[in-house]
Write a structure and sequence with these properties.
Helices cover 12% and strands 35% of the residues. The protein is mainly beta. It has one domain: predicted glycosyltransferase like domains (Thrombin, subunit H, Beta Barrel), CATH 2.40.10.220. It has a 6-stranded antiparallel barrel.
Length: 139
Amino acid sequence: MDAIKLWASDRSTVRRAVRARCQAVAENGFRLIGEKALDLSTDGLLLACDAGVVVGETMLLSIEMPSTREWIDAEAVVARVVEGYRDGDRGYCAGLRFTAIDFESWRALRHGMRGSPPPVPMRSLRSFFALTNAPAFAL
């Protein structure tokens, strides 16, 4: 199956530059993977990893909301792995997509992110033509 790539503007929710304490544990083997969320959305988070992960791996999460100090629980799957080799990468990280979160936790997450800015882009904007290798049309 081919991976689907989306533009940042095509995301269903906006990521927020909210740093939060968390505990991410791999469901298989119950290994501690990381303890710091670098940004959040109502769909998932970017986790700074202290251990290796693979795409598709299931995680159990507890996240402390910075605004209320309330902890919420969720399940997530590793959607992508950031190796940390490119300029602007924040080290070895994993993008986690929530697969199970109860409504009250989701609402607390949404409320806790309110008013927080989106993260600063780490790479420069790319043009549509550079991405598609389509010829530029001259008028």
